[in-house]
Amino acid sequence: MSIPRNVELKKGLKDVYFERTESSLIDGKEGKLLYRGYSIHDLAEHSTFEETVFLLLEGSLPTQVELNKTDSELRKARQVPDTILQLISLIKTSHPMDVLRTVVSAMSSLDDDVENNSEDSVKRKGLRMTAVVPTVIAAHHRIRQGDEPILPREDLSHAANFLYMLFGNEPDPFDAKLIDKDLILHAEHGVNASTFAARVASSTKVDFYSAITAAVATLKGPLHGGAAEGVMRMSQEIGTTENAEPYVKELRSRGGRVMGFGHAVYKAVDPRSVHLKSEAKTLGDRKGQPEWFSILDAVTKVMEPYARRGLNPNVDFWAGAIYYLLRIPEDLFIPLFAMGRVPGWVTHILEQNSVKDLLRPRLDYVGPSDLKYVPISDR
Prior knowledge:
- This protein has a domain at about 25-190 and about 340-355: Citrate Synthase, domain 1, CATH 1.10.580.
- A three-stranded antiparallel sheet has the order 1-2-3.
- The chain is mainly alpha-helical.
- It is built from 16 helices and three strands.
- Strand 2 (about 30-35) and strand 3 (about 40) form a beta hairpin.
- Helix 7 crosses helix 8 and helix 12 crosses helix 14.
- About 55% of the residues lie in helices and about 5% in strands.
- It is globular and about 70 Å long.
- The protein has helices spanning about 40-45, 50-60, 65-75, 80-90, 95-105, 120-145, 160-165, 175-185, 195-205, 210-220, 225-240, 245-255, 275-285, 290-300, 315-325, 335-355; strands spanning about 25, 30-35, 40.
């Protein structure tokens, strides 16, 4: 029989506070998100991903000199050695997130300073990882198609260079700016599952690469990073705006989940989603494919009665449409999420490294007790 205990379970560790942070503030009731005190609305409209990287890692907005230095460091760190490209070739049939996880882990072998968890060392590695992840994602996609990887260009922004390496053409400035905004919106979001994984790993005083590997592995899960991919599959199944209402009602009647709605934290509208909604409409019109926005917009109207239950569109609802319209393959949607989230992970690794506590929650045992061992010959 189980041992009776007076234990209050916090399923999913919901509303459990284990540490303090200066990285971001999420107010789920108000639909508010701040990076280092700055509104996500201001950052999305006026900042760049490079500037946001500096803000998260350093804690303040950069001066022009500081931004130029960070931007230069990111541009110079984009290349990956041939050994990494060879590794990608060996596992090219794997899911892009599996490839990314493997490469992130393997990168530790190329760093002579692996065990150094000082603040300066982690920031250096963080910038390097931020710069390299787009190269890895694009190189793997081209290699698996039988194409040669395209070398990164130092004269392009972080977002523009990714699209260039992926498709082989210098991107439309509007497309590059849109990816830049998407990366800003995904850069940091409190102690979500992948960030928590990175912090748990870091609490053991493990090296930087191990912590990032844990984060990448966790992000792959469909309950965390897979919503954008699911949204576009749902849109394709719906097919037309007229079918949105019967599709959603039938899905909900059998207990199905409408992808891209609801969030573990936000009960109000996800503040990140509002920036991508207008961009998705503009992009669809510009690409001559307005139907995808129309279908998704129809879904939001059908779901309006459920908003009071916290089922509002989240950031991935519109992100999926944007990625699709930019011809980014669906299995790269989660890697693109990772591409934006690296600086957020680095920020939390820095914070966790600054405290001594090992993250070690407990489980309430409800199994049998004091069973008598029976030798195998008598079982």
